[in-house]
User: What shape does this take?
Amino acid sequence: MLPHRSKKSVLFFLLPPLLFYGLGVLIPVVQSLFISFFDWDGISDMEFVGFGNYAKMFTGDKVFWQAFGNSMIYMVICLILQLAGALLVATLLMEITKGRELVKTLYLLPAVISTVAIGFLFQRIYSMNPVGLLNRILQSIGLGGLSRPWLSDPHTILAAVSIPEGWRFSGLYMLIIYAAFMSVPKDIEEAARLDGVNEWQLFAKIRFPYIRPVWITTVIMAVTYALRGFDIPYLLSNGRYGQLVTTYMYRTAFTNTNYGYASALSVFIVVECVVAIGLIFGFMKRNDD
Assistant: This one.
């Protein structure tokens, strides 16, 4: 048990971030929940519609369901690139000695580049006119028939906006997982090697189970960030193609000036993230049992 003075110290340091969290997150969520029960264009009087916006969302809005499906595909692509890539690179870093710091720095670099710069970079990579890097590579290897405007083709837009997002945060998750791997007791690894385990068994039976709490936290971060993804998809496509729920919410609010329905969409995104966290914890607990 913490001494009484220590409890006061902890409370003293916790209050400021909790206060900022309440002002910056909880109050806007409650405000959005309140507005979602009204029909409001931001100027005229608010008209109470009850659950009308939610009924429209789930039963009468085909664009919403299309955006929801796109968001799921976007999330899956991001998770594959971010989590699988981060886990692979972190595992490889444990096995190399020369150039480790350089690899970590280069892999983490996208996380510190501004979102606008990343958007501008991938607009040039995907460009059709003038020919961007991706289409130029395809042409140089004899696959020019596959060249296309990647950001305006409905068949490629989701993958095209997901790849920059996956590339952007994979370095951050790699660093988290690598730090967790470094905390695995070396005597346990050495004892396992003396018992004749190979590298795969060392990873599957010792390292990964040891970092399981960190892995769960990383999965939650990646899933919730993907579900709330907005900036890069909007910058690359302006929300015109391959709409996500987030970009659809933005266009509903600031293009169509339907703040009531946009607030209902924002509440859905919050609930979606909470449900995803619950499912992750439930899945992990079932595996533990």
